[in-house]
Amino acid sequence: MSFFFEVLVGGLLAGVMYSLVAIGFVLIYKASGVFNFAQGSMVLFSALTFVSLLERGYPFWLAFLLSLLIMLVLAWAIERWVLRKLVNRSPITLFMATLGLSYIIEGLAQSLWGAQVHGLDLGINDEPFEVFGLLLSQFDLFASAVAGTLVIILSIFFNKTRTGIALRAVADDPLAALAVGINLQRLWLIVWAVAGFVGLVAGLLWGARLGVQFSLSLVVLKALPVLIIGGFTSITGCIVGGLIIGASEKLAEIFIGPYLGGGIENWFPYVLAMLFLLVRPAGLFGERQIERV
Amino acid sequence: MLYREAGQFISHYRADQRLFRLRQDRIGFYLLLASAFVLVPYCGNDYWFSAILIPFLVLSLAGMGLNFLTGYAGQLSLGSAAFMAVGAFSAYNFNLRVEGLPFLLSILLGGVVAGLTGVIFGLPSLKIKGFYVLVSTLAAQFFVQWVFTNFAWFSNDSSSGVITAPPLQVFGLDLSSPAGRYLLTLTIVTALGLLAANIVRSELGRNWMAVRDMDTAAAVIGIAIPKTKLLAFAISSFYLGIAGSLWAFTYLGTVEPHGFDINRSFQILFIIIIGGMGSILGNFLGAAFIVLFPVLMSHIANGLLAGVIDAGHLENFQKIVFGMLIIGFLIKEPNGLASIWQTFRQQLRVWPLRY
Question: Interface pTM (ipTM) of the complex?
Answer without folding.
Answer: 0.86
